[in-house]
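Why do we bother with a discrete structure alphabet at all? Because it lets us treat a fold like text: something you can write down, compare, and reason about line by line. To make this less abstract, here is a complete entry for UBA domain-containing protein. Read it the way you would read a sentence in a foreign language you are learning: slowly, and without expecting to understand everything at once.
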Amino acid sequence: MAKKSEESSKQQPKGWKPAGTQYAAPDESGYVPKKSDWTPPKQDFKPPKSDWKPAKPEYKPPKSEWKPPKENQAAAPQKQWIPPPADGPMARLMEMGFFDTALNQRLLVKFDNNIQKVVQELLTLKNKDWSQ
């Protein structure tokens, strides 16, 4: 009995085709695409004439004057960002994010370099442009 059920499951339904063969070519289906009167335009483009010529075989590029630095020789200093001096009340205000130096200076003079009072005044200002 087991063999009979296996054989019947192997039989495919009528009209069944494997997945790769289900495509019907246009001539089999009867589909004919519409004819078009369009033709591509003629190409009138002509590339420009060039007077470029390859280098002569005896051409040698100029010698380079550059030499790598010696191992014990220090490399030339590059432009590097140098942080502002970290001492003084102005630098501390800048570290806190108060970058308006004119306003900071005016408030430092007003409060006699008392940073706590300056920060409190900056935070209570209605115009919050102290970060620019």
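What the structure line is telling us, in plain words: The mean pLDDT is 78. DSSP finds five helices and no strands in the chain.
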